[in-house]
Amino acid sequence: MKKIMAALAATVTALALSGCATSNTPTTDTGPLTIAKQGSFFVGGRNIESAHLSLLPAYAPSGTIAVEQMYVRFQEPVAAKRPPLVLIHGCCLTGKTWESTPDGRMGWDELFVRRGYPTYVIDQVSRGRSAANPSAIVQVKAGKASADTLPQVFGASQEGAWAIFRFGAKYPEVFPGMQFPLEAQGEFFKQMVPDWLNALPTPNPTVPALSQLAQQLKGAVLMSHSQSGIFPFQTAALDTRGIQGIVAVEPGACPDPKADLKPYLGMPILVLWGDYVELSPRWAPRLKLCREFVAAVNQAGGKAQQIELAQVGLPGASHMLMQDKHSLQIGNWLAQWMDQNIRP
């Protein structure tokens, strides 16, 4: 009975919000963008001493390097009246996820700036412009360590990513009505980089860096995607200070609904899903777990919602919904949800 009631409540919530897809003022302006300031910086990090930095004659093998720092690029609109928004990319990708789409349209980082949100785009620790530690690789290359000590790094193939990102059940099949711009798939696959996630300590250093950033900004909304979907929740479990809301876009995991839910009760939470999720053996169990988590948070007195975009008039979304052909409609819907649920 509880599951039935939770499902009915979710349906009512979705219907109540369905007007957002058409009632909000769309932001599709591509004219000049006026901003107060922009820039970049690093959060976190520590210095380590290493004797295995290089085998090249021109560079010393020993010395000090910084590791575990998180790169942040930002743009702030003029007279911003909305809370800062931190955009966190997922597996095998970088902050490029939120920039211009593969077919050259406006990305969500610009869209949210135009909607009045100071927008902060990160590269996860050891990804993109957040440097990785090469010491273990150099040490093996020098013959001073065995190959089994190499860090666990992987690259997702285009064929495997096809199903992971739900363009179709398997490569090269396409789900009917799927909205990802497949004519630009070559440009999308260029975004993918080696993933060092499994070579990092636990907890992932990105998590405390996100906590530090949220507090440094004196409050922020944490918006994650896919692999990083759990990061805002882990950040809240570490310290709720500075977190004004959580938006988890197709999270790879949600917290255990039977675990301590106190960190999540004082902030609005949205878990957002695209289409074809129930058709994916990889994603269907995650949808179920997140549904149970949202129900548990609400039962405990929190304010959480799980929305599937098809329920609000935006069908056909892939896992990379911030890059789909209707990404601006989705982004505008999401901006209105934040306007209504998250206060500065």
3D structure, described in words:
It is a single chain. The chain has 344 residues and is α/β, with parallel strands linked by helices. 28% of the residues lie in helices and 19% in strands. The protein has helices at residues 2-17, 20-23, 108-114, 135-141, 158-164, 185-189, 206-216, 231-238, 284-299, 327-341, and strands spanning 35-50, 63-77, 85-88, 119-123, 220-225, 243-249, 268-273, 303-308. An eight-stranded mixed beta sheet has the order 1-2-4-3-5-6-7-8, with helices on both faces. Strand 3, helix 3 (108-114) and strand 4 form a beta-alpha-beta unit. Helix 7 packs across helix 8 (231-238). The chain is globular, with a radius of gyration of 21 Å. The two termini are 38 Å apart. Residues 1-24 have low confidence and may be disordered.
Q: List the secondary-structure elements in sequence, H or E.
A: HHEEEHEHHHHEHEEHEH
Give helix % range: 25-40%
Mean pLDDT: 93
Strand content: 15-25%
CA distance, first residue to last residue: 38 Å
* Rg result: 21 Å
Number of helices: 10
Total E-strand runs: 8
Q: Which residues sit in consecutive blocks of at least 5 with pLDDT less than 50? A: 1-24
Sequence of strands across the biggest β-sheet:
1-2-4-3-5-6-7-8
Query: Quick one: biggest sheet?
Result: 8 strands, mixed
